[in-house]
Specification:
166 residues; alpha/beta; Rossmann fold; 7 helices; 13% strand
């Protein structure tokens, strides 16, 4: 079984994914951490040194490799992974996709102080909110293609959704 958690930065993919994987008895995979291991540098540094296009290519390669593997896992995808290089199609064809739908106001609270998200670098909170709003608007049509859409789910909600789809 492959479960992909998709959504905006700060939506809770990693926070919910770890306990979900533990409940299901399968490994948890953080796609950004996999990319960092492969590249030997942080996502922030990859963006700074190689640019977003390079990052998206590596992100797509990592996604394709995991999707093609025989392993079971719960993956917290990068926020953009479904949106580039046919990511959503790869995700949907290889496993169960769950969009963690989180309001922009909540996302802003969660990522406001975080300086390690390259696409959300901003001079002030208003600029960060504007960037989040624009990203959300662009990505929402892709995210909504997920098998399951859950608003502000708990681990229990995710577990029930997965068990219903087995």
């Amino acid at each position: 079984m492959k479960v992909y958690l998709i959504g905006m930065p700060g939506s809770g993919k990693s926070t919910l994914g770890r306990p979900l994987a533990a409940e299901l008895g399968i490994p948890f995979v953080d796609q950004d951490k996999e990319i960092e291991c492969r590249e030997g540098k942080t996502v922030k540094d990859i963006f700074a040194q190689n640019g977003e296009d390079y990052f998206r290519q590596v992100e797509a390669e990592v996604l394709r490799e995991w999707a093609a593997s025989a392993k079971s896992f719960v993956m917290a995808t990068g926020g953009g992974a479904p949106c580039f290089y046919e990511g959503i199609e790869i995700i949907k064809q290889s496993g169960l996709s769950i969009f963690i739908d989180t309001a922009v106001t909540e996302l802003l609270k969660r990522v406001a102080a975080n300086k390690d998200r390259p696409l959300l670098r901003a001079n002030d909170l208003k600029e960060k909110e504007d960037r989040l709003t624009e990203l959300h608007k662009k990505r929402l049509p892709v995210y909504q293609q997920a098998h399951i859409v859950l608003q502000h789910p708990t681990v229990k909600d995710l577990l029930e959704a997965v068990k219903l789809r087995k």
